[in-house]
Amino acid sequence: MILVTGGAGFIGANFVLDWLAQCDEPVLNVDKLTYAGNLETLASLDGDQRHVFVQADICDRARIDALLAEYRPRAMVHFAAESHVDRSIHGPGEFVRTNVEGTFTLLEAARGYWSQLDGEARAGFRFLHVSTDEVYGSLAPDAPAFTETHPYEPNSPYSASKAASDHLVRAWHHTYGLPVVTTNCSNNYGPYQFPEKLIPLMIVNALAGKALPIYGDGMNVRDWLYVKDHCSAIRAALAQGRLGETYNVGGWNEMPNLDIVHTICAILDELRPRAEGSYTAQITYVKDRPGHDRRYAIDARKIERELGWRPAETFETGIRKTVQWYLDHAGWVGNVQSGAYREWVSRNYAARDAAA
Ligand code: NAD
Ligand code: DAU
Predict the structure, then answer these.
(1) How does residue 340 score in pLDDT terms, banded at 50, 70 and 90?
(2) β-pair partners for 183
(3) Rounded to an integer, what distance in angstroms lies between the CA atom of residue 219 and that of residue 215?
Protein backbone atom coordinates (compact mmCIF):
# COMPACT_ATOMS: atom_id res chain seq x y z
CA MET A 1 0.00 0.00 0.00
CA ILE A 2 0.90 3.65 -0.10
CA LEU A 3 0.68 6.10 2.80
CA VAL A 4 -0.81 9.49 1.96
CA THR A 5 -0.69 12.43 4.39
CA GLY A 6 -3.33 15.15 4.13
CA GLY A 7 -5.65 12.93 2.09
CA ALA A 8 -8.80 14.62 3.43
CA GLY A 9 -7.77 18.01 2.04
CA PHE A 10 -8.38 19.37 -1.44
CA ILE A 11 -5.54 17.88 -3.50
CA GLY A 12 -4.91 14.89 -1.22
CA ALA A 13 -8.54 13.74 -1.41
CA ASN A 14 -8.63 14.21 -5.19
CA PHE A 15 -5.43 12.13 -5.33
CA VAL A 16 -6.87 9.32 -3.17
CA LEU A 17 -10.11 9.19 -5.18
CA ASP A 18 -8.18 9.20 -8.44
CA TRP A 19 -5.69 6.57 -7.25
CA LEU A 20 -8.40 4.12 -6.20
CA ALA A 21 -10.33 4.77 -9.41
CA GLN A 22 -7.26 3.68 -11.36
CA CYS A 23 -5.79 0.80 -9.35
CA ASP A 24 -6.47 -1.49 -6.41
CA GLU A 25 -3.38 -0.69 -4.37
CA PRO A 26 -4.68 0.31 -0.92
CA VAL A 27 -4.16 3.75 0.59
CA LEU A 28 -3.44 4.52 4.24
CA ASN A 29 -4.76 8.06 4.59
CA VAL A 30 -3.26 9.97 7.55
CA ASP A 31 -4.88 13.33 8.23
CA LYS A 32 -5.36 15.44 11.34
CA LEU A 33 -8.67 16.82 10.05
CA THR A 34 -8.02 20.51 10.55
CA TYR A 35 -10.63 22.98 9.25
CA ALA A 36 -9.34 22.08 5.74
CA GLY A 37 -9.80 18.31 6.05
CA ASN A 38 -13.22 16.93 5.30
CA LEU A 39 -14.22 13.26 5.37
CA GLU A 40 -17.39 14.03 3.38
CA THR A 41 -15.13 14.42 0.35
CA LEU A 42 -14.20 10.75 0.76
CA ALA A 43 -17.75 9.51 1.41
CA SER A 44 -17.79 7.50 -1.84
CA LEU A 45 -15.06 5.29 -0.27
CA ASP A 46 -17.15 4.32 2.77
CA GLY A 47 -16.91 0.54 3.17
CA ASP A 48 -14.11 0.30 0.58
CA GLN A 49 -11.43 -1.97 2.09
CA ARG A 50 -8.76 -0.33 -0.05
CA HIS A 51 -9.01 2.93 1.91
CA VAL A 52 -7.88 3.08 5.55
CA PHE A 53 -8.38 6.44 7.21
CA VAL A 54 -6.46 7.35 10.38
CA GLN A 55 -6.89 10.67 12.13
CA ALA A 56 -3.38 11.63 13.25
CA ASP A 57 -1.01 14.57 13.38
CA ILE A 58 2.13 14.30 11.25
CA CYS A 59 4.03 15.91 14.14
CA ASP A 60 3.27 12.86 16.31
CA ARG A 61 6.37 10.73 15.76
CA ALA A 62 5.26 7.79 17.88
CA ARG A 63 1.98 7.55 15.98
CA ILE A 64 3.67 7.74 12.56
CA ASP A 65 6.24 5.11 13.59
CA ALA A 66 3.45 2.80 14.75
CA LEU A 67 1.51 3.28 11.49
CA LEU A 68 4.58 2.54 9.38
CA ALA A 69 5.32 -0.60 11.43
CA GLU A 70 1.73 -1.81 11.18
CA TYR A 71 0.94 -1.05 7.53
CA ARG A 72 4.42 -1.26 5.94
CA PRO A 73 3.74 1.07 2.96
CA ARG A 74 5.96 0.96 -0.12
CA ALA A 75 5.77 4.75 -0.48
CA MET A 76 4.75 7.94 1.31
CA VAL A 77 3.06 10.78 -0.57
CA HIS A 78 3.17 13.89 1.60
CA PHE A 79 0.40 16.46 1.04
CA ALA A 80 -0.41 17.46 4.64
CA ALA A 81 0.22 21.16 5.22
CA GLU A 82 -1.25 24.42 6.26
CA SER A 83 -1.84 25.80 2.78
CA HIS A 84 -3.55 29.21 2.80
CA VAL A 85 -1.29 32.27 2.42
CA ASP A 86 -3.73 34.69 4.11
CA ARG A 87 -4.01 32.41 7.14
CA SER A 88 -0.21 32.27 7.35
CA ILE A 89 -0.15 36.07 7.58
CA HIS A 90 -2.67 36.07 10.43
CA GLY A 91 -1.05 33.17 12.31
CA PRO A 92 2.29 31.79 11.07
CA GLY A 93 2.94 29.47 14.04
CA GLU A 94 0.80 26.59 12.81
CA PHE A 95 2.52 26.80 9.41
CA VAL A 96 5.95 26.36 10.94
CA ARG A 97 4.66 23.53 13.12
CA THR A 98 2.93 21.45 10.44
CA ASN A 99 4.94 22.35 7.36
CA VAL A 100 8.43 22.37 8.90
CA GLU A 101 8.24 20.29 12.08
CA GLY A 102 5.68 17.93 10.54
CA THR A 103 7.80 17.29 7.44
CA PHE A 104 10.88 16.82 9.65
CA THR A 105 8.97 14.29 11.77
CA LEU A 106 7.82 12.36 8.70
CA LEU A 107 11.32 12.34 7.22
CA GLU A 108 12.79 10.95 10.42
CA ALA A 109 10.06 8.34 10.68
CA ALA A 110 10.56 7.43 6.99
CA ARG A 111 14.32 7.18 7.48
CA GLY A 112 13.94 4.85 10.46
CA TYR A 113 11.46 2.65 8.59
CA TRP A 114 13.32 2.63 5.26
CA SER A 115 16.70 1.85 6.84
CA GLN A 116 15.29 -1.40 8.21
CA LEU A 117 13.92 -2.56 4.84
CA ASP A 118 15.89 -5.03 2.71
CA GLY A 119 16.38 -5.79 -0.93
CA GLU A 120 13.56 -4.81 -3.27
CA ALA A 121 11.47 -3.16 -0.56
CA ARG A 122 14.36 -0.86 0.30
CA ALA A 123 15.26 -0.12 -3.32
CA GLY A 124 11.65 0.58 -4.28
CA PHE A 125 10.69 2.80 -1.32
CA ARG A 126 9.80 6.42 -2.16
CA PHE A 127 9.05 9.60 -0.21
CA LEU A 128 7.22 12.00 -2.51
CA HIS A 129 7.03 15.54 -1.19
CA VAL A 130 4.27 17.75 -2.62
CA SER A 131 5.36 21.38 -2.72
CA THR A 132 4.57 24.67 -4.39
CA ASP A 133 5.89 27.16 -6.93
CA GLU A 134 5.62 29.90 -4.25
CA VAL A 135 9.02 28.86 -2.85
CA TYR A 136 10.62 30.65 -5.83
CA GLY A 137 9.15 34.05 -4.92
CA SER A 138 7.72 36.60 -7.32
CA LEU A 139 8.54 37.18 -11.03
CA ALA A 140 8.82 40.47 -12.95
CA PRO A 141 6.25 40.77 -15.77
CA ASP A 142 8.61 39.66 -18.55
CA ALA A 143 10.90 37.33 -16.60
CA PRO A 144 11.15 33.73 -17.78
CA ALA A 145 9.03 31.17 -15.93
CA PHE A 146 10.39 29.30 -12.89
CA THR A 147 12.65 26.37 -13.73
CA GLU A 148 13.79 23.83 -11.14
CA THR A 149 17.08 25.74 -10.71
CA HIS A 150 15.45 29.09 -9.93
CA PRO A 151 16.72 30.43 -6.57
CA TYR A 152 14.46 30.02 -3.56
CA GLU A 153 13.05 33.44 -2.52
CA PRO A 154 9.91 32.74 -0.48
CA ASN A 155 8.01 35.85 0.59
CA SER A 156 5.13 34.73 2.82
CA PRO A 157 5.17 32.72 6.04
CA TYR A 158 3.43 29.94 4.07
CA SER A 159 5.98 29.85 1.26
CA ALA A 160 8.89 30.18 3.70
CA SER A 161 7.61 27.18 5.64
CA LYS A 162 7.21 25.16 2.42
CA ALA A 163 10.70 26.22 1.29
CA ALA A 164 12.08 25.02 4.63
CA SER A 165 10.33 21.68 4.15
CA ASP A 166 11.77 21.35 0.64
CA HIS A 167 15.26 21.96 2.02
CA LEU A 168 14.78 19.29 4.68
CA VAL A 169 13.65 16.79 2.05
CA ARG A 170 16.66 17.62 -0.11
CA ALA A 171 19.05 17.25 2.85
CA TRP A 172 17.57 13.89 3.92
CA HIS A 173 18.36 12.59 0.44
CA HIS A 174 21.81 14.13 0.21
CA THR A 175 22.93 13.13 3.69
CA TYR A 176 21.07 9.90 4.44
CA GLY A 177 20.23 8.70 0.93
CA LEU A 178 16.48 8.69 1.63
CA PRO A 179 14.80 8.05 -1.77
CA VAL A 180 12.87 11.29 -2.22
CA VAL A 181 11.24 13.11 -5.13
CA THR A 182 9.79 16.65 -4.82
CA THR A 183 7.16 18.30 -7.00
CA ASN A 184 6.61 22.10 -7.07
CA CYS A 185 3.22 22.91 -8.48
CA SER A 186 1.30 26.05 -9.41
CA ASN A 187 -2.24 27.05 -8.31
CA ASN A 188 -4.72 24.18 -8.38
CA TYR A 189 -8.47 24.44 -8.83
CA GLY A 190 -11.29 21.92 -9.18
CA PRO A 191 -13.79 19.92 -7.11
CA TYR A 192 -13.64 19.89 -3.28
CA GLN A 193 -11.47 23.01 -2.89
CA PHE A 194 -12.18 24.80 0.38
CA PRO A 195 -13.95 28.11 -0.38
CA GLU A 196 -11.21 30.27 1.14
CA LYS A 197 -9.09 30.09 -2.05
CA LEU A 198 -9.73 32.45 -4.97
CA ILE A 199 -11.74 30.29 -7.39
CA PRO A 200 -14.14 28.50 -5.02
CA LEU A 201 -14.55 31.67 -2.92
CA MET A 202 -15.62 33.64 -5.99
CA ILE A 203 -18.10 30.98 -7.13
CA VAL A 204 -19.61 30.57 -3.67
CA ASN A 205 -19.80 34.32 -2.97
CA ALA A 206 -21.27 35.03 -6.41
CA LEU A 207 -24.07 32.51 -5.85
CA ALA A 208 -24.72 33.89 -2.35
CA GLY A 209 -25.06 37.45 -3.70
CA LYS A 210 -21.96 38.55 -1.76
CA ALA A 211 -19.04 40.77 -2.76
CA LEU A 212 -16.30 39.27 -4.97
CA PRO A 213 -13.23 40.69 -3.14
CA ILE A 214 -10.31 41.49 -5.45
CA TYR A 215 -7.04 42.16 -3.62
CA GLY A 216 -5.18 45.26 -4.85
CA ASP A 217 -5.57 45.96 -8.58
CA GLY A 218 -6.47 42.38 -9.50
CA MET A 219 -3.50 42.14 -11.88
CA ASN A 220 -1.48 39.60 -9.88
CA VAL A 221 -0.75 36.65 -12.13
CA ARG A 222 -0.93 32.95 -11.26
CA ASP A 223 -0.54 29.78 -13.34
CA TRP A 224 -3.64 27.58 -12.97
CA LEU A 225 -3.76 23.77 -13.11
CA TYR A 226 -6.82 21.52 -12.88
CA VAL A 227 -6.40 19.34 -9.79
CA LYS A 228 -6.70 16.02 -11.64
CA ASP A 229 -3.71 17.02 -13.76
CA HIS A 230 -1.72 17.64 -10.59
CA CYS A 231 -2.72 14.15 -9.40
CA SER A 232 -1.49 12.55 -12.63
CA ALA A 233 1.80 14.48 -12.35
CA ILE A 234 2.32 13.15 -8.82
CA ARG A 235 1.59 9.60 -9.98
CA ALA A 236 4.16 10.00 -12.75
CA ALA A 237 6.77 11.43 -10.37
CA LEU A 238 6.13 8.63 -7.88
CA ALA A 239 6.45 5.93 -10.54
CA GLN A 240 9.37 7.27 -12.56
CA GLY A 241 10.81 10.39 -10.90
CA ARG A 242 14.58 10.36 -10.49
CA LEU A 243 15.68 10.18 -6.86
CA GLY A 244 16.64 13.49 -5.28
CA GLU A 245 15.17 15.44 -8.22
CA THR A 246 12.54 18.15 -8.19
CA TYR A 247 9.89 18.55 -10.89
CA ASN A 248 7.95 21.74 -11.60
CA VAL A 249 4.29 21.10 -12.42
CA GLY A 250 2.10 23.71 -14.12
CA GLY A 251 -0.75 24.30 -16.49
CA TRP A 252 0.91 26.59 -19.07
CA ASN A 253 -1.88 28.94 -18.19
CA GLU A 254 -0.89 32.30 -16.70
CA MET A 255 -3.78 34.62 -15.95
CA PRO A 256 -4.37 37.79 -13.90
CA ASN A 257 -6.84 37.33 -11.04
CA LEU A 258 -9.32 39.76 -12.58
CA ASP A 259 -9.54 37.64 -15.75
CA ILE A 260 -10.21 34.56 -13.62
CA VAL A 261 -13.05 36.31 -11.82
CA HIS A 262 -14.54 37.64 -15.08
CA THR A 263 -14.41 34.13 -16.54
CA ILE A 264 -16.26 32.71 -13.53
CA CYS A 265 -18.88 35.47 -13.77
CA ALA A 266 -19.40 34.79 -17.49
CA ILE A 267 -19.94 31.06 -16.89
CA LEU A 268 -22.36 31.76 -14.05
CA ASP A 269 -24.18 34.36 -16.17
CA GLU A 270 -24.80 31.54 -18.64
CA LEU A 271 -25.53 28.64 -16.25
CA ARG A 272 -27.31 30.46 -13.39
CA PRO A 273 -28.24 33.97 -14.64
CA ARG A 274 -29.03 36.66 -12.04
CA ALA A 275 -32.28 38.55 -12.47
CA GLU A 276 -30.40 41.86 -11.94
CA GLY A 277 -27.77 41.29 -14.68
CA SER A 278 -24.16 40.06 -14.68
CA TYR A 279 -22.39 38.75 -11.58
CA THR A 280 -19.56 41.16 -12.42
CA ALA A 281 -21.63 43.81 -10.57
CA GLN A 282 -20.56 42.04 -7.34
CA ILE A 283 -16.81 42.64 -7.96
CA THR A 284 -15.29 44.78 -5.18
CA TYR A 285 -11.70 45.99 -4.85
CA VAL A 286 -10.31 45.51 -1.33
CA LYS A 287 -7.06 46.18 0.50
CA ASP A 288 -4.16 44.14 -0.88
CA ARG A 289 -2.56 41.10 0.77
CA PRO A 290 0.61 42.19 2.62
CA GLY A 291 3.69 41.09 0.65
CA HIS A 292 1.46 39.93 -2.23
CA ASP A 293 3.57 38.13 -4.86
CA ARG A 294 2.97 39.76 -8.25
CA ARG A 295 3.49 36.88 -10.63
CA TYR A 296 4.15 33.13 -10.70
CA ALA A 297 4.83 31.18 -13.88
CA ILE A 298 5.96 27.59 -14.20
CA ASP A 299 8.27 26.09 -16.80
CA ALA A 300 7.03 22.49 -16.83
CA ARG A 301 9.33 21.21 -19.58
CA LYS A 302 11.44 18.97 -17.34
CA ILE A 303 8.53 16.78 -16.21
CA GLU A 304 7.34 16.56 -19.82
CA ARG A 305 10.79 15.63 -21.12
CA GLU A 306 11.66 13.11 -18.41
CA LEU A 307 8.29 11.67 -17.39
CA GLY A 308 6.11 12.39 -20.42
CA TRP A 309 3.60 14.41 -18.35
CA ARG A 310 1.50 17.25 -19.74
CA PRO A 311 -1.79 18.63 -18.44
CA ALA A 312 -4.84 17.09 -20.11
CA GLU A 313 -7.26 19.88 -19.23
CA THR A 314 -7.31 23.40 -20.67
CA PHE A 315 -8.38 26.27 -18.42
CA GLU A 316 -11.54 26.72 -20.47
CA THR A 317 -12.67 23.12 -19.94
CA GLY A 318 -11.40 22.87 -16.35
CA ILE A 319 -13.03 26.06 -15.08
CA ARG A 320 -16.38 25.15 -16.66
CA LYS A 321 -16.29 21.71 -14.97
CA THR A 322 -15.36 23.38 -11.69
CA VAL A 323 -18.18 25.94 -11.76
CA GLN A 324 -20.62 23.16 -12.66
CA TRP A 325 -19.29 21.03 -9.77
CA TYR A 326 -19.96 23.83 -7.26
CA LEU A 327 -23.44 24.35 -8.70
CA ASP A 328 -24.12 20.63 -8.28
CA HIS A 329 -22.64 20.31 -4.78
CA ALA A 330 -24.29 23.05 -2.75
CA GLY A 331 -24.65 20.52 0.09
CA TRP A 332 -20.88 19.96 0.35
CA VAL A 333 -20.29 23.72 0.31
CA GLY A 334 -22.93 24.29 3.00
CA ASN A 335 -21.39 21.64 5.25
CA VAL A 336 -17.85 23.06 5.09
CA GLN A 337 -19.12 26.56 5.87
CA SER A 338 -19.06 25.90 9.59
CA GLY A 339 -18.84 28.48 12.37
CA ALA A 340 -15.03 28.32 12.05
CA TYR A 341 -15.32 29.16 8.35
CA ARG A 342 -17.56 32.13 9.02
CA GLU A 343 -15.20 33.36 11.73
CA TRP A 344 -12.25 33.21 9.28
CA VAL A 345 -14.15 35.07 6.56
CA SER A 346 -15.06 37.92 8.89
CA ARG A 347 -11.49 38.09 10.27
CA ASN A 348 -9.83 38.16 6.82
CA TYR A 349 -12.22 40.47 5.01
CA ALA A 350 -13.46 42.81 7.76
CA ALA A 351 -10.00 44.36 7.97
CA ARG A 352 -9.93 45.02 4.21
CA ASP A 353 -11.86 48.24 3.69
CA ALA A 354 -13.36 48.41 0.23
CA ALA A 355 -10.65 50.17 -1.75
CA ALA A 356 -12.52 51.27 -4.84
P1 NAD B 1 -5.58 21.77 2.08
O2 NAD B 1 -5.35 22.87 3.05
O3 NAD B 1 -6.84 21.70 1.30
O4 NAD B 1 -5.45 20.36 2.85
C5 NAD B 1 -4.43 20.11 3.78
C6 NAD B 1 -4.77 18.80 4.50
O7 NAD B 1 -3.71 18.54 5.44
C8 NAD B 1 -6.07 18.87 5.30
O9 NAD B 1 -6.83 17.70 5.08
C10 NAD B 1 -5.60 18.95 6.75
O11 NAD B 1 -6.51 18.37 7.68
C12 NAD B 1 -4.29 18.18 6.69
N13 NAD B 1 -3.36 18.59 7.76
C14 NAD B 1 -3.02 19.84 8.13
N15 NAD B 1 -2.17 19.82 9.17
C16 NAD B 1 -1.95 18.51 9.45
C17 NAD B 1 -1.15 17.83 10.42
N18 NAD B 1 -0.40 18.49 11.32
N19 NAD B 1 -1.16 16.47 10.42
C20 NAD B 1 -1.92 15.78 9.53
N21 NAD B 1 -2.70 16.37 8.61
C22 NAD B 1 -2.71 17.71 8.57
O23 NAD B 1 -4.30 21.79 1.13
P24 NAD B 1 -4.21 21.47 -0.44
O25 NAD B 1 -4.57 22.68 -1.20
O26 NAD B 1 -4.87 20.18 -0.71
O27 NAD B 1 -2.62 21.30 -0.58
C28 NAD B 1 -2.02 20.02 -0.38
C29 NAD B 1 -0.52 20.16 -0.56
O30 NAD B 1 -0.23 20.65 -1.86
C31 NAD B 1 0.13 21.15 0.41
O32 NAD B 1 1.37 20.60 0.81
C33 NAD B 1 0.32 22.41 -0.41
O34 NAD B 1 1.42 23.14 0.05
C35 NAD B 1 0.57 21.82 -1.78
N36 NAD B 1 0.19 22.66 -2.93
C37 NAD B 1 -1.07 23.19 -2.99
C38 NAD B 1 -1.43 23.94 -4.11
C39 NAD B 1 -2.81 24.54 -4.26
O40 NAD B 1 -3.04 25.31 -5.20
N41 NAD B 1 -3.76 24.23 -3.40
C42 NAD B 1 -0.50 24.14 -5.15
C43 NAD B 1 0.78 23.58 -5.03
C44 NAD B 1 1.10 22.83 -3.92
O1 DAU C 1 1.01 28.78 -6.29
C2 DAU C 1 0.61 27.66 -5.54
C3 DAU C 1 -0.12 28.11 -4.31
O4 DAU C 1 -1.40 28.57 -4.75
C5 DAU C 1 -0.29 27.02 -3.26
O6 DAU C 1 0.98 26.66 -2.79
C7 DAU C 1 -1.16 27.51 -2.09
O8 DAU C 1 -1.38 26.46 -1.18
C9 DAU C 1 -2.48 27.98 -2.67
O10 DAU C 1 -3.29 28.51 -1.63
C11 DAU C 1 -2.27 29.03 -3.75
O12 DAU C 1 -1.77 30.28 -3.18
P13 DAU C 1 -2.32 31.71 -3.68
O14 DAU C 1 -2.07 32.69 -2.63
O15 DAU C 1 -1.83 32.01 -5.06
O16 DAU C 1 -3.89 31.32 -3.80
P17 DAU C 1 -5.23 32.11 -3.38
O18 DAU C 1 -6.36 31.33 -3.96
O19 DAU C 1 -5.27 32.42 -1.93
O20 DAU C 1 -5.09 33.47 -4.17
C21 DAU C 1 -4.93 33.48 -5.59
C22 DAU C 1 -4.79 34.94 -6.01
O23 DAU C 1 -6.03 35.61 -5.80
C24 DAU C 1 -3.77 35.71 -5.20
O25 DAU C 1 -3.10 36.64 -6.06
C26 DAU C 1 -4.60 36.47 -4.16
C27 DAU C 1 -5.91 36.71 -4.90
N28 DAU C 1 -7.12 36.74 -4.03
C29 DAU C 1 -7.34 35.71 -3.18
C30 DAU C 1 -8.46 35.71 -2.37
C31 DAU C 1 -8.69 34.57 -1.40
C32 DAU C 1 -8.02 37.80 -4.16
O33 DAU C 1 -7.83 38.74 -4.96
N34 DAU C 1 -9.13 37.79 -3.35
C35 DAU C 1 -9.37 36.80 -2.44
O36 DAU C 1 -10.40 36.88 -1.72
Answers:
(1) confident
(2) 130, 247
(3) 9
- Is the Cα dihedral 84, 86, 90, 93 positive or negative? positive
Domain that holds residue 147: 2-191+224-251+295-312+339-355
Residue 223 Cβ inside 6 Å of ligand 1? The answer reads no
Q: Quick check: 356 pLDDT over 70?
A: no
DSSP assigned state of 241: P
Protein residue with least CA distance to atom 16, ligand 2:
197
**The pLDDT of residue 341:** 83
Q: Is residue 205 part of a domain?
A: no
325 occurs within a structural domain = no
- CB-hemisphere CA count at 13 Å for 19? 29
| DSSP β-bridge partners for residue 184 | 131, 248
Q: Is residue 269 part of a domain?
A: no
Residue 24 Cα to ligand 1 middle (Å): 24
Burial 209-233 (b: 16+ CB within 10 A, else e): eeebbbbeebebbbbbbbbbbbbbb
pLDDT at position 354, please? 65
User: Does residue 261 form part of some domain?
Assistant: no
> For residue 220, which atom of ligand 2 is closest to its CA?
25
Q: Which bound ligand lies closest to the C-alpha atom of 53?
A: 1
Residue 304: which CATH number? 3.40.50.720
Residues labelled as active-site residues:
133-134, 158
**Which ligand is closest in space to the CA of residue 133?**
2
